[in-house]
Amino acid sequence: MITSYDLGFGQMDIYDDYVITIMNEGIIVLPEYNDIFLKIVDKHFKNKAFVYITHRINSYSVDPTIYLETAKINNLVGFAVVSNDPIQKMQTKLEKTFFGKNFCQFNTMQDAIHWKEEIIKKEID
After folding, report:
1. How many other CB atoms sit within 10 Å of the CB of residue 95?
2. Structural domain total, the chain
3. In a 10 Å sphere around its CB, with 0-12 CB exposed, 13-18 middle and 19+ buried, how is residue 10 labelled?
4. The predicted structure's pLDDT at residue 34
5. Does residue 44 come out as left (phi exceeding 0), alpha (psi in the -120 to 50 range) or beta?
């Protein structure tokens, strides 16, 4: 891990070519959170392909329109949701329709990181 941020509404860990977030219990992920995310992305991934992985271990809501703006980040090449909760799996299907890029759901972090490696490799080749 390169660094970690306490965002107030969640935790974001920065790695070489991906981020992992864990959002706080009970929050609503809002489009304005993108401003904070963009500053972090610009600092750590300027002109470098990366993947966003969200580890959904807490219960919270996502405004799916957030993905309309998130998808505009040119160097964001994929978005992964890690959860084995059936409700989260259904939510992920809805969220995916707003993103327009590689967007997958996984039961384990290991599977998400393996997918990330494939997506990044395709982007570099």
Report:
1. 22
2. 1
3. buried
4. 85
5. alpha
Length of the chain: 125
At 79-120, the pLDDT tens digits run 999 999 998 888 889 899 999 999 999 999 999 999 999 999
Query: What domain range includes position 88?
Result: 3-124
- Candidates 88, 89, 84; CA nearest to 108 is 84
Q: Which residue has the tokens 């904070």?
A: 36
Which CATH number do you get for residue 111? 3.30.750.24
Q: What percentage of the chain's residues is helix, strand, coil (to nearest 5)? A: 40, 30, 35
pTM of the model: 0.94
The angle at the Cα of 111, spanning 23 to 43, to the nearest 5 degrees, equals 50
